[in-house]
Design a protein that fits this description.
Elements lengths: L1 E5 L3 H12 L4 E5 L6 H10 L3 E3 L10 E6 L8 H8 L4 E3 H12 L4 E6 L4 H14 L4 E5 L5 H7 L5 E5 L2 H4 L9 E4 L7 H4 L2 H9 L10 E5 L3 H4 L7 E5 L3 H6 L2
Helix pairs in contact: 1-6, 4-6
Length: about 250
């Protein structure tokens, strides 16, 4: 069975290249009518066939799994048809997580989500880990795809992963030993429809946590996270309004 990777952005290309390098039959499809000669040549060298300009349903024949780029919603017609046929649809983050956990090399995952400040926090945490002597990689939404970081990572690496709501829509078994939800303001409502749906997508970062994992959340806004899934232990940051007032 082949894997169909939908979307030839940085995330989709990284997923397709990784799968092809592992010997997994893979097809890349993108709505762009012309990928450009350089990309087409690069994909040909990697043994990755591309389908451009549309997503024909014929690609679902013999497809065992669909890997979605973050910009593609699960409501897209091609994705909806795949799901109706029982074909699982995951994101590149989920694919990377599956590979990482399969290694069992002592690596860990710290995830960062929220509306603002994700990239800065992700980079800062990775930097602090590195200067403390731990191998760490900042990856995810801020630039380097997670699958790319995992493919080149060494054992016992701490992967600090910035996650957008788009990426969190397509996680299944993703598990972070530590996860931070920084803040929440209205964003991406054209995709999610409502602020509540957007918030729910963000909360998926905690979904697979158990009692030994850490859930980092803002003390001043329990309404953002108090109904979060998972069993992680709360570590609250910031002041509540009362604490700020009492401090003077």
């Amino acid at each position: 069975m082949r894997t169909v990777v939908m979307g030839a952005g940085r995330s989709g290309l990284a997923a397709a290249r990784f799968l092809a390098a592992q010997g997994q039959p893979v097809v890349l499809t993108d709505s762009r009518p012309d990928p450009g000669a350089e990309l087409e040549l690069d994909l040909a060298k990697a043994g990755i066939p591309g389908v451009w300009g549309s997503h024909p349903l014929a690609l679902l024949e013999g497809c065992g799994e669909l890997v979605l780029s973050p910009g593609i919603p699960r409501t897209a017609p091609f994705v909806a048809e795949a799901l109706s046929r029982g074909i699982p649809a995951i994101g590149e983050v989920e694919l990377a997580h599956r590979i990482l956990r399969g290694r069992g090399d002592g690596s860990r995952v710290l995830a960062v989500t929220g509306t603002n400040g994700k990239s800065t926090t992700t980079d800062l945490v990775a930097h602090l880990l590195r200067v403390s002597g731990l191998p760490a990689a900042a990856c995810g939404n801020l630039g380097t795809p997670v699958i790319e970081a995992v493919a080149t990572g060494v054992p016992a690496t701490v992967y600090v992963v910035e996650l957008s709501s788009y990426q969190l829509e397509s996680v299944v078994g993703f598990h972070a030993e530590g996860a931070a939800f920084l803040n929440l303001t209205p964003d991406h409502l054209a995709r999610h429809g409502t602020l509540e749906a957007y918030r729910r997508a963000k909360l998926r970062v905690f979904e697979r946590q158990d009692a030994v994992d850490l859930r980092v959340v803002p003390a001043a806004h329990p309404e953002w996270w108090q109904d979060a899934p998972g069993a992680g232990r709360d570590a609250r940051f910031g002041w509540t309004p009362c604490e700020a007032w009492c401090d003077g």
